[in-house]
DNA sequence: TCTTCTTACGCTCGGCGTAAGTATC
DNA sequence: GATACTTACGCCGAGCGTAAGAAGA
C-alpha cells in the first residue's frame, strides 16, 4: 500500500487506461503495469478488470479509501512545509459561493489578496493542502452548532456568521403566501439540485432525519447564485437560501420555521497562520 | 513520507529512543537512524531533537497527522481483506460503556460472540481496522441528530437508541430538588472528568457553544459506571448520564431540560458485513 | 567510559526502462 | 494486424546490516 502505487492506481482508474496513466505520471506503461501488479499482489486480490479497464468490487472500495488517504498525505506535507516556510505576503482565500457575503468580505484586505470561489466540498481540502491560506465555508446547521465538515486534516473552524434561511418559491406557487414553512412539509416537493451553488439536498435530508425525499428535479452545476434564483423563479424546483439573498424577480422567499436551522458560515485555517493571514483571521473573527 | 518511515518516526517519538524503537520494530538501530534522517531530509526540516529524543515543533505537528494517516492505511487494508475473506463465524462487538444497554444487547447472539468494552474514542478505529465487526458508540446530540464521530474510514452509522439525559447530583446539593436543569446554568460548576466512562466535557462545551467552562474537578480514568455514580454521590463533581442509568444511593438525577439533548447510541460497521454480523446488525436496527 | 546516535561501506533486492510476448478487438 | 496490457531481463539506486566514529552524560 505504498502511496506511489496508490497514486498510480487512482490515476489508472480515473483514466480507465494504463497507457494514459503512464503518460500523465511520466512513467512507461510497463512501470504502471508493474505498479498495479504489485498492489494487487500486496492486497492479494484483483483490483482492475482489463479490456476494458474498470475497477473490480474491491477496486471500487479501494478508491474510496485512496482518495482521502492521498489527500491527507498532501495535507500533512503542506502543513509541515508551511510551518517552516516564509510568512507569505500574499493571501489566498477560497470560499463557497454562499459564504461570500458583504459582512465576511469587509475584513478582506484590498491589496495582495486573492479570492477564489469554489464548490463547497473542495474548500476544506484546499485549505488543508495549502492551496489557500483561509477558507470560508457555509452550510446548514442548528443554531450555534458547528458545521459538519469532512476532516481531511486537523483544521481550525470558527463561526463567523449565522442567518435565517428561506425557501425560494416562484411567484404563483400555492405556498408562496405563507408566513413560514416547515421543511417536513416540503420533503415530497421537487427540489433544485445545486450542490455547488446552493445547499446540497443531502444536508436537507440530514437536517430532517429523512433518508429519502427532497427529490432532485433539475441539477445545476455551477456556482452562480443569480442563475440558481432564476431557476427557482422559473418554477423548475425549490431551493433553500439565506433569507437576505433570496429576493429575486418572479420569486418569493418564505422563511423556514421548522426545524430551527440557520445558514452558518465558518472560517477555516490550519492554525499555522503566517503574516497577513493572521491579522485577517483575527479581524474577521472579531467583526462578526 | 513513506508510511514505513512514518511508522518508525511515531515509534521513536513514542519511546523517545532510537534504539528502543529499533528493538520494537525489528530493525537495527542504524536503520532507524537512517529512516529518521531520510524523513527529515524529505521534509527538509528537523523533526526530533536528540539527547534527549524529543519532537521539535514540526515533529509535534507531524505526529498529529501521522497517527490518523497510519490508522486510515490500516483501515483501508483491513476493509479490503475483509471484503475478500471468508465470512466469519465468530463475531466481535466493541462498545463504549454507556452504549451497553439491555435494549441494545437483547439482539446479541448468545454464542460465538465477544463483547469488548473500550473507551469511546477507540470504537471507530476498532471497527475500521477490523479489530471488531460491529461497534456501539454513544454520545450527546440534538434529538435525531447523528453523532459527531471522527471519520477514520467510511463507516456506516445507524442510530439504535435515544434517551433523555440527567444531571447526577449528591443528595444534599442545592439544585437537587429542581424538576429540571439547564446546562447553561451549570457551566461554572465543578464537573467530573470521566471521558471513558461518562460523557467527555468537550461534548458538553460543544453542546452549549461555550469554549470554556465545565471545569474538571476530579478525573476518573476507567469505564465503570458504578464508580462514576459513587463519585458523583460523594459530591466530588457533577456528571451527566442517561436518565435511566442515573439513580444511585446518595445521589439524585435531575432531567436536563435545556438545551434539548439526548443520549444517542449508534451502531457502527463498515458496510461489508459477513455472515452472522449481517443478521445481527439487521436485528438491532429493526429492534429499536 | 559507557551509552546512544551518526556515518561509512558493502551487499542485496526493489523498481524502472527496453524490448519481446500475448491477448483482445 | 493493431492496440493495449504483461512478462523477461538488465541496470541502477534505495535500503538494510556491520562496523567504525562522534558526542553527550
Write a brief caption for the model.
Chain A contains nine helices and twelve strands. Chain A has helices at 3-15, 18-25, 29-43, 57-84, 102-105, 123-128, 201-208, 225-233, 276-287, and strands spanning 48-49, 54-55, 91-95, 113-117, 134-141, 156-170, 181-182, 190-193, 215-219, 239-242, 251-258, 262-269. The first copy, chain A, binds a DNA duplex (25 and 25 nucleotides) through α3.
Description:
Two copies of one chain form a homodimer. By secondary structure, chain A is an alpha/beta fold. In chain A, 36% of the residues lie in helices and 24% in strands. The first copy, chain A, contains nine helices and twelve strands. Chain A has helices at 3-15, 18-25, 29-43, 57-84, 102-105, 123-128, 201-208, 225-233, 276-287, and strands at 48-49, 54-55, 91-95, 113-117, 134-141, 156-170, 181-182, 190-193, 215-219, 239-242, 251-258, 262-269. In chain A, strands 3, 4, 5, 6, 7, 10, 11 and 12 form an eight-stranded mixed sheet that branches. A two-stranded antiparallel sheet of chain A has the order 1-2. In chain A, strand 8, helix 7 (201-208) and strand 9 form a beta-alpha-beta unit. The termini of chain A are far apart. Chain A binds a DNA duplex (25 and 25 nucleotides) through helix 3.
